[in-house]
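Course assignment 3, question 2. Fill in each field.
Student: A.L.
Task: Predict the tertiary structure for the chain below.
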Amino acid sequence: MARSLHRLANPGRFRRFAGRVLPWTAGLSAAAFTAGLWLALVDSPIDYQQKDSVRIMYVHVPAAWMALSTYAVMALASAGALIWRHPLAEISAKASAAPGACFTVVALVTGSLWGLPTWGTWWVWDARLTSVLVLLFLYIGYMALWRAFDDPRRAGRAAAVLAVVGAVNLPIIKFSVDWWHTLHQPASVSRFGAPALDPAMLRPLLVMYAAFLFFWATVLLLRIRAELDERRLQALALQRSP
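Answer field:
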């Protein structure tokens, strides 16, 4: 694994790898979105209490999962950049920030839309919602740090430190519904024993999660490739400058 990551640090090898993988991730994402939306909007049953508003779950839950997992990837990549000075790790972390922030916004917006018919309010300052909002601020702060310094090396180090320190928020988000009294329901899929969801609802949820996951992989590869191209152009410009 480490040897493969080291090989991908070469820009040429990574471009060839991305060129082979991108058609698959994009195609699988499109297919999963098509199947998942049909299963979620047409085939899945309505909830006996929430009625059709439960269908928001099929976007809200995968977006929330991706918001957390993308930050975990960003934090791990940042740690790799700080410890091993791996160039691809720093670029991967930087490329993860914007998609992760978008996933977090989608999770917050769809959660508010779901909360109104369920709780009778758009927003409550409970532990789960507040910690997810903090996650959005961490994404925004990470991206802001990259723009706050003229020296890319200083910007990368400062952003990486924030990403690693901010990872402490991830277990708070995950276990907040168990540690504190909250309106947000506890875990119904990632729980010990069998999931609480009916299989007719669990299937479209997992298909939609796969769609989000392949979409994230596609966007991440495109952003890493674009960042490599930008750095190459900057290096060429420096070489040509008098």
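Instructor remarks: Helices lie at 2-8, 11-43, 57-84, 87-119, 127-148, 152-166, 169-179, 199-240. The chain has a mean pLDDT of 88.
Grade: pending
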